[in-house]
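Bench log, entry 3. Co-assembly request; chain sequences pasted below exactly as received.
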Amino acid sequence: MRQISLRKFLMGLFATSLAALLGMIALPHDKYLRYESLNDHTAPNAYWIYQRIHNDPAPIDIAFIGTSRTGRSVNTERLENDLAARGVHAKAVNFHIVKTGRDMHYVIAKELLTHRQVKLLVVEMTELEDRTPHPDFIFLADPQDVITAPLFINLRYFYNLARLPGRQVDLFLETHLNQLGLRHPDFVAPPYQGSNLDWTEYLDTLDGKRHPLTTQHSYQDMQKIRMEQEAAITPPVLPKSFAPFEFRVPRYYIDRILTLAKQHGTTVVFLYAPRYGGPAMPPPYEQIYAQRAELINPQPLLEGFQLWADATHLNSSGSKILTDYLAEAIAQGGYLH
Amino acid sequence: MLFNSYIFLFAFLPVVLAIFFGLRHRGLLGASVFFLMLASVTFYAYWKPIDTFVLLGTIVVNYSLAKYFGRVSAQHAKWLLTLGIAANLGLLIYFKYFDFLASNVAAMLSKDYVARGIVMPIGISFFTFTQLAYLVDCYKSRSYEAQFSSYALFVTIFPHLIAGPIIHHAEMRPQFARLRRETFDTEMIIMGVIMFMIGLAKKVLLADNLVSGADAVFNVADHGGQFNAAGAWTGALAYTLQIYFDFSGYSDMAIGLALMFGLRLPVNFNSPYKSTSIIDFWRRWHITLSTWLRDYLYIPLGGNRGGEWARLRNVFITFLLGGIWHGAGWTFIIWGALHGAYNVTNHLLRNQWPLRATQSFRMTLGKQVFTLLLVIIAWVFFRAKTVGGALSVLKSMALLAPADAAPLTTDFSLYFWIVLAAALVFLAPNTQQLTQYSAQLSEQLKLPRMGLIEALRRGGLVFAPSPAVAIICGLLFAGALACIWRPAIFIYFNF
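Structure output for the full assembly:
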């Protein structure tokens, strides 16, 4: 029998591991299960996003990409009606996903634009760039996007990379167990909820309850909430000249979204989704993106404290004002021609 | 820091190994041993830095006490020993049992008690027992470890610090001394890597994939729910296999890591589920704890010196206290009492019908199955959070569940893992057999020289430093890496 040295033994071990891990990453699976697996929130919508893109033949003329700020701001059904009243007939879909992270916006945009013809892509813009990647990026991203994600400064890169082989194996097994009827998932998505999943009037949680989004606070309370939110903001950590590194992740992915949209002939506009008491214009837009795409800015209409459910989310009254303004801006802007 | 975490596998371990061997390469053997102690303290501090003060405090106190045994009269030495034992046990009782004792006393007095929520420092049960044994040994021999750093390394050496194996100073002292003056064979490192990979795979690929089955049943039972017989048996079997692969996986990893640093730790498992009696089981399960309880509890209680009934009483008390050592709760007390009763009964039966030299296969199998059944019943109490939950599971296992008791709906994969784990438990050789590891310092460590094919032809399986074994270890490592994103603590870290 052939004996080998410690060095050769370790090289053989690590080379085998690497090959096996690459093999795991290459395993195929049903992509829907990937979207269904992101379900640990009270009211997940990732499975719905997949269903809307792939299974619902209704057109997607206007698509919104963003965080829960966008989710709680844009009532797409109201927007369609507002546009129709202005003689513009278009189907709008809100593809927001909770929590911040531009990498996730790219994942959704990529899935959408590579499978559907979209006329207008409305991308959320906020008063601050989100330097951190989305915590759930690993749930939805394609393997090549996980591997080729920017390394600097991406605090989740190695975690996501390490998680990838296990995710691929799990999804591969789930796909085949599903086909054999042997899978008993912890989470079963509800029946398809229609072409417009609205989060501005009500929030339907997984426990079957419907929560009206009509919360209002007194002026004093809103000031307190605003100050608490402002205190929680982490200003840039590195000197200004290092901003391209510190904010590499959001800038890289917005750049990719804009490039992807251009490739597919989709117009992109940014929608400023401000926080309560936030600046009149979002600084990232002014400093970086003003030359790349237009901005729809409803901020002056949203200064009233009665329009806010909390520091960053509009209540249903606020969303109505924003949606009406948005319809006017889209119709006036001629983005759908 | 968990052995099965990215931070340990890709940062702590490679860095510590690199510095350790870097120092040794430059001939700084003593410094490498001192560095290992510092790395071990860092490893512990990573959990909760404040707890390091408790660990270091006990080290200073026990080291100082032992130092004085040889310098004072026998009477004073005895006082010092009593003081040391009281201090160690006092600390353990405070951190581990205070809330439990206080709430039970309050309940007896019909008074309210608001739990203080005392969080015990991780590994306290293990480092307390390690140091108690040291104190007793020093008292008996009137000798002590002269070098503080050596004693600190003995207590803190990171592979065993959190969950054993429980080591003795007499086993480690010559190894530290040799490490300070000699280099060691790379064969030890290969054996260490192999054992670590086997342990990692046991924990991450087997134990962690069985968690869902056990949790699904016991969590429901603890909250008043009940499964049908199949569901309850699935949960009990899943836990029986989970705890074995969890703890034996940890022990393999601990031994493997120690080997990478040129040290040998005692064996903790020897195919316990193949035992043919409960007495046999306790010679194969958590061997270092059983040995500790025998040497430092059973024998001081009187052992077998006071006649048969005193022996049986001491056996029962030893197991009862062994149960309490595992945790503050009635379920652990019942688990200990059950094993005490099993052992007493086993001794009585053995007195009546002594073991025959040879036994038929059918007889051996019957004994193995019966022993395992007793062990599973006891595990139900060990796993359940409440006595009611344990009784509910046992009732279902005994086909006494109500007709409308829920079936367990679970993935097919759980049954796959149960069957695979059971097959490995009953049909595969254990880690020592695979690697021919021996903790006996008198025996030379030599990996088997047989090829896989050759070994299989001879009806066995061995892990030699061959390309095939490197590939097997690589596959185990890859499989483990794919699964360790799920945070899963070792069961024995809770004790």
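Residues 412 and 418 of chain B are 10 Å apart (CA to CA). Chain B touches chain A at residues 6, 186, 189-190, 193, 197, 409-413, 449-451, 454, 464-467, 469-471, 473-475, 477-479, 481-485 (CB under 8 Å).
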